Each structure stands twice: as C-alpha cells, then as structure tokens.
Amino acid sequence: MNLPNKLTVLRVLLIPFFIFFIMIDSIPLNILWGGIVFGVAAITDLIDGRLARKYNLITNFGKFLDPIADKILVMAAVLCFCAKGWIDVIAVFVILTREFVVSGLRLVVAGEGVVVPAGIWGKLKTASTMAAIGVIMAIEFFLVDIFAIDFNFYIINEIIIWICAVLTIISGVTYVYAYKDYINPEN
Predict the structure, then answer these.
(1) Contacts of 152 (CB under 8 A, 6+ apart)
(2) I need a surface site. Which of 44, 87, 107, 110 has the fewest CB within 10 A?
(3) Distance from first CA to last CA of the chain, Å, rounded?
(4) Distance from C-alpha of 91 to C-alpha of 160, rounded to nearest angstrom
C-alpha cells in the first residue's frame, strides 16, 4: 500500500476517535482533542491526493476510498454537532442528502465506465465544510468552554453551517447537471 492510500486509511481510522472525543463531555478538553484529531484527519485529505498526483501514485483503491473517507468524516462531524445541539438538523439533512445523491450518481456513472472527478464546486464544498467544522469546534471550545462567554453561539454556528449547506447544494446541482444524461429516466 502506498503512502497516499495509507493516509486515506488513517483518515478513516481517526473518525471513531473524533466521535469519541466530541461526544464524551466527561473527558477533560474533549473538544480540543476532537479538534486535534479532526485537524490531523483533514490534513491527510490535503496531502494524500497531492502526493498521489505528484508522484503518480494514483490507485483505484485511493479513487474509491478517498471520497468515501471525506464523506464519512464530514457526516460524523455534522451528526455529532447536531446531536450536541450546536447546529440545526435541517442543514445536516441538506448536507447528507447531497452526499448520498452525488455518491449514487457516481455509482451510476461508474457503471457506464466513466469516472466522475472532483469538480471545483465539490472541492470548494469540501474545503469550506472542513473549515466550518474547525471553526464551530473552536467556538465551542474557546468561547464556550474556556472563556465561558455568556452568549448563544448557536446562531453563529447556524450561519456557518448554512453557508456550507448552500455550497453543498450548488455542488450537488453541478454534478447532477453535468451527468444528467446518465440518470435520464428515458435511458
């Protein structure tokens, strides 16, 4: 197994640790530890693809697992945040629906022998969502836990996650439009 694939596998293996730290409030500095784990996982996402392209280490395994690892990491984060009451369930539903629609589209298109590459909107969606997850954790850790600021940060978290949801919708629509012929009910 090459290094980019090992980094992708590491990202998947870090997800349960992220969930554990975020969800178990009795662990001292749990959000900080969850943020560190998430940060390491997000960095592996930045590095694995670049290494694979730069050193011609692209494999079918990597093409398969990398987008799945990204989706699982993001889904784990938004579901945990929703469970903790940090963000709204509707935004989470929008984000998860897009992930399932695009994944289904990729399967249909792959059945026709076509690989759906990550488009600019998909990359922007992933980067903004990863950043938003980091910002929400920073708000909850520093402003709520450490400084105990008496303010309801839910609305700020909502604005952040809805920006991601809008980018998620745009990204999903661009994928569906680009590959609409493969899901035409007449075919």
Answers:
(1) none
(2) 107
(3) 39
(4) 10
